[in-house]
């Protein structure tokens, strides 16, 4: 587990916002065929901690310009209605938040995030999605 720096958190937030905008306008997977996928996410074969938050994103492995489909992970489960089909890069952002702190520099309240994604899974993993799959589980 590692502390997420402000730069990494900012990039992650930018990616999530970009993906959310894409999902809001109906994009996901670059406009090609999509599938509904759902499943469970575990780490080391164990359920996620109760206070874990996060998302899973699905992006065409061969189209870096395509907007990924992003789904929240809730209670260790996710559901993405518009995951792209074919070879897909799946990336996880799973974390816990610490107690509120106040920045000495700005006076703003913030919470440190601790990533739960194992280092060897930071870049995600590739899977092949051929169609709808309600049991596409991931063990990180």
Automatic annotation (TrEMBL):
<keyword id="KW-0732">Signal</keyword>
<protein>
    <recommendedName>
        <fullName>Carboxypeptidase regulatory-like domain-containing protein</fullName>
    </recommendedName>
</protein>
<feature type="signal peptide">
    <location>
        <begin position="1"/>
        <end position="24"/>
    </location>
</feature>
């Amino acid at each position: 587990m590692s502390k997420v720096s402000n730069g990494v958190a900012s990039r992650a937030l930018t990616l999530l916002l970009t993906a959310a905008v894409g999902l809001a306008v109906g994009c996901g997977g670059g406009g090609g065929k999509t599938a509904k996928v759902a499943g469970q996410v575990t780490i080391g074969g164990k359920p996620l901690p109760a206070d874990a938050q996060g998302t899973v994103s699905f992006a065409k492995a061969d189209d870096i310009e395509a907007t990924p489909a992003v789904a929240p992970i809730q209670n260790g489960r996710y559901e993405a209605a518009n995951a792209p089909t074919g070879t897909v890069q799946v990336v996880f952002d799973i974390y816990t938040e610490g107690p509120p702190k106040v920045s000495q520099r700005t006076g703003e309240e913030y919470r440190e995030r601790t990533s739960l994604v194992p280092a060897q899974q930071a870049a995600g993993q590739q899977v092949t999605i051929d169609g709808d799959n309600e049991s596409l589980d991931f063990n990180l």
